[in-house]
Amino acid sequence: MSIGELAFIERLRALATHPAARGLDDDVAVVGDLVLTHDTIAEGVHYLPDDPPASVGWKLVTVNLSDLAAKGAEPVAALMSVTISGDGDWEDRFLSGVAAACEAYSLPLVGGDTIALPLHAPRVLGLTAIGRGGAHIPSRGGGSPGDGLWLVGTLGDAAVGLAALLADINAEGPMVEAYRRPVPQLAAGRQLAVHASAMMDVSDGLLLDASRLCAASHCGARIDLDSLPLSRGFIAERGSDRKARLSAATAGDDYALLAALPADFDPAVSLSLPSGTNLVRIGTLTEGKELTLLDAMGEVPTPEQLGYEHHT
Amino acid sequence: MSIGELAFIERLRALATHPAARGLDDDVAVVGDLVLTHDTIAEGVHYLPDDPPASVGWKLVTVNLSDLAAKGAEPVAALMSVTISGDGDWEDRFLSGVAAACEAYSLPLVGGDTIALPLHAPRVLGLTAIGRGGAHIPSRGGGSPGDGLWLVGTLGDAAVGLAALLADINAEGPMVEAYRRPVPQLAAGRQLAVHASAMMDVSDGLLLDASRLCAASHCGARIDLDSLPLSRGFIAERGSDRKARLSAATAGDDYALLAALPADFDPAVSLSLPSGTNLVRIGTLTEGKELTLLDAMGEVPTPEQLGYEHHT
């Protein structure tokens, strides 16, 4: 995140004093039982100019759904706001990706705005997603020392895919798909929200997002690097040694879920997750403020860069 | 509206099949008792690069509130999505205008997104406003032949202000203020919504917006040009003859309300409007599809350009 963005958000925080804003420390706002989120993606910032337009449409919808997933909310409706620049073919294919994601996750598109900008202006694509939360809508800030720290999904795949695309614009395969077509963990999020003292999605790097959950929860965390869930595709590309695990723990665009759950939480007893859902315990919330990393060889120095600070 | 925008919106319509979308024919979506709207404004399209940043912030909030007003909804919350480009002074003053409008109309800012774009990229400023509707949330499409057509506000002031600014960047006065600082008719909208068979805000020109209300309501309208509410400032600048009235009836950025009300509607009996609210009957909905204009001299040819088609 740039200094400009940080300063702007600090000024915003002074305006957003309503309890529904959750101090802008959450990814969402909560109004009654509704969960509201808005993410904007921009060409050259959040996606590559050469990304297939359908995957850009898919991503716009699913990054917002990932925020709903992190609060255990059911998708209710979306408003889309996009700039268009007269490239009807691009826009057509973009819309087909939006439609596919809305269909896949039962998200009715109910309105929004479309504005024409000159051809050279970077596209700005925004979506407001509205979801209905359950009895408990976890924030980032409810965790306590002793809670287990759990993760749904795998880490680092999208970063491997992005690196492959930057090296070769025609790269393909599951890692490229992970970068282009994030999958929001809606079903797992709904079930975990009932039990979670704190929950958020991991989109800027596990360590960075975990540090945010810790800061909001006024505690620290101990994370076992060896427990981090890595896909076979990731391991084939990067291996699974300490260096590879640190790269997975600091990579962006995972759209995994990070949840603080009671110390004695047993998913086999409490949850009935869709088959293929990857839920693992990766650590424990602790007293203090420190983020401590461990692996089989002992304590691991915390990297300077905890994640991808570009996103907001 | 450009051909590209029209084509894009046609494609969107095919996606937005949920009843809450109201076929994208309304300015808002309705989910339960919530009214949702999103308007984006862009530099060089919806405001002038030299407009004071605080007035741009004010406008971003109030154009969205005008959509809530047109459905009789109480403001509940807003999510703001803006691009920033490192001009902290501009952004600071922009935020002060956002804050002033949120304060004036009790709209809590509860979230959103901020993304950094290169300095040369045009700013794109979006807001999702959420309101709570009353027992009846009028659409554009409920009007019937015989209904009276009523207007809240005055016409043409913002267009006079914009013309003054285009002639002289330092122009000032109430017409310039009307362009820069629209006033959403929230109180009048709330009271009228109870009685209105159809209602919308007038932002693209009365005749264009009236033709949209007529199309959605499957009827025509007869409008009495002599009844159009003109401000003293407008009359001082443009006069009040037929030509002046046609220019007021086709000017953009009025943010007035247009309501279809029962034939025997009497505001003195049914409403208790804030003092200074300007509510007048301007015509009648009719059978057929025609928009007919009249004044004291007889029928007035309908102008080719009904309004400002640039906005969406």
TrEMBL record, chains A, B:
Positions that bind Mg(2+) 1: D39, D113
Binding residue positions for Mg(2+) 4: D27, T37, D67
All copies of domain PurM-like C-terminal, residue ranges: 145-293
The enzyme's E.C. designation: 2.7.4.16
Binding-site positions, substrate: H46, D253, Y308
Pathway(s) per entry: Cofactor biosynthesis; thiamine diphosphate biosynthesis; thiamine diphosphate from thiamine phosphate: step 1/1
UniProt-recorded Gene Ontology molecular function terms: ATP binding; magnesium ion binding; thiamine-phosphate kinase activity
PurM-like N-terminal domain segment(s): 26-131
Annotated binding of Mg(2+) 3, by residue: D27, D67, D201
GO biological process, one term: thiamine biosynthetic process
Record-listed ATP binding positions: G112, D113, R140, S203
Catalyzed reactions per annotation: thiamine phosphate + ATP = thiamine diphosphate + ADP
Pfam families: AIRS, AIRS_C
Protein family: Belongs to the thiamine-monophosphate kinase family.
Additional record remark: Reaction mechanism of ThiL seems to utilize a direct, inline transfer of the gamma-phosphate of ATP to TMP rather than a phosphorylated enzyme intermediate.
UniProt protein name: Thiamine-monophosphate kinase
Species: Sphingomonas cremea
Phylogenetic placement of the source organism: Bacteria, Pseudomonadati, Pseudomonadota, Alphaproteobacteria, Sphingomonadales
